[in-house]
Design brief:
Elements lengths: L3 E13 L4 E13 L3 E5 L6 H9 L6 E4 L2 E4 L2 E2 L5 H7 L4 E4 L3 H4 L6 H13 L3 H14 L5 H4 L9 H13 L5 E5 L7 H18 L2 E5 L3 H7 L2 E6 L2 E7 H6 L4 H8 L39 H5 L5 E4 L2 E3 L6 H12 L2
Parallel strand pairs: 3-9, 3-10, 7-8, 8-9
Antiparallel strand pairs: 1-2, 1-4, 1-5, 5-6, 10-11, 11-13, 12-13
């Protein structure tokens, strides 16, 4: 039986001003097993990236992170000081950001930037540190690693910069990596190469990974389990095959229906009407109710909890309750 490297319990990330406050992430709970890849999907504004920043302790003021626990390998991150988080971040847990050009410092060589975590966390000396960085660059598939070591970010292509970001994240052999849209800015061919590289490195190092993306195709290729987020909450979760083949929540169904179908030529793609509401405009009941084709009166009044629909699959939808399904079909029949 696998044990968990990360357990998030009732996570809330709140942003406040003098007049108002809202939870961009609103009481979510999930876990990551050792050696597995968890995918977090949803449209922009659903809370995916804020979740990752909250775990890494990178939410800046006026944001605050609270909850019952963010348990990483037996340590509750919510109880750590800023110094203790810095010692952990980049060492035992690392993050790959979606925009390497804005994440890499333009005035330092890539070798210098990868070396920094080895200097801080591993206390490696100059020559030993350089050798380690060059080997890392080779591991992530960068040719002429000795030469690239001295290059600056602007001298590299988008794919090469992303490989540098991966090397930086891998430098201290972390047990957990969070990858936030790691292939968004890359063309399809390079995307496939980067994803394959990440899978190979994860298997060889035995790491756990959280992959944040809006691309369900990427999730189906890379992830073991999936979390679907909407308006700061988890609306569905479970094994990738179960969720993608038999989605239970109307939002997940809508996301899958909007994908182009192989071998089918369509005049117009399906889409989910409307857009993700801003946090201050969230509905009183189910937050997807304004866009849901199956909305009932109960949906407008009560927030649905995550309901078990299969052994390992949960859905935050009142239609997952058999009595509510019966009531809905009766309603449709009589209208």
């Amino acid at each position: 039986m696998k044990s968990n490297i990360l357990e998030v319990k009732n996570l809330k990330t709140t942003f406040s001003s003098k007049r108002k406050s809202f939870n961009a992430v609103d009481g979510i709970s999930f876990h990551v097993e050792k050696g597995e890849t968890l995918g977090i999907v949803g449209e922009s504004g659903c809370g995916k990236s804020v979740t990752s920043l909250s775990i890494m302790g990178l939410v800046k003021s006026p944001g605050t992170v609270s909850g019952d626990a963010i348990d990483f390998d037996g340590v509750n991150l919510l109880n750590l000081s800023k110094k203790e988080m810095r010692n952990l971040r980049g060492n035992k847990m690392s993050m790959i950001f979606q925009e390497p050009m804005t994440s890499l410092n333009p005035v330092y060589s890539v070798g210098n930037q990868i070396s920094e975590s080895l200097k801080v966390h591993k206390k490696l000396k100059g020559s030993e540190r350089k050798e380690r960085v060059v080997n890392l660059l080779k591991q992530v598939g960068i040719p002429r690693a000795d030469e690239i070591y001295h290059n600056y970010p602007h001298q590299l292509s988008g794919g090469m910069r992303q490989r540098v970001m991966i090397a930086m994240a891998m430098a201290c052999d972390p047990t957990l990596i969070i990858a936030d849209e790691p292939t968004t800015a890359l063309d399809v061919t390079i995307q496939a190469q980067i994803l394959e590289l990440m899978k190979e490195l994860q298997l060889s190092k035995g790491m756990s990974m959280i992959l944040i993306t809006h691309d369900l195709g990427v999730v189906s290729e890379v992830c073991d389990r999936i979390i679907v987020m909407y308006a700061g909450k988890i609306v569905e979760n479970g094994p990738v095959k179960e969720v993608l083949i038999n989605p239970s929540h109307p939002y997940t169904q809508g996301l899958l229906a909007s994908l182009p179908k192989k071998g089918h030529k369509e005049d117009r793609l399906n889409f989910i009407p409307g857009q993700v509401p801003a946090p201050l405009n969230w509905a009183e009941g189910c937050r997807f109710s304004e866009r849901c084709p199956y909305v009932m009166e109960k949906c407008l009044l009560d927030v649905p909890p995550l309901i078990k629909v299969k052994e390992e699959q949960e859905s935050a939808c009142w239609l997952a309750v058999k009595e509510e399904v019966k009531e809905y079909h009766e309603l449709v029949k009589n209208t």
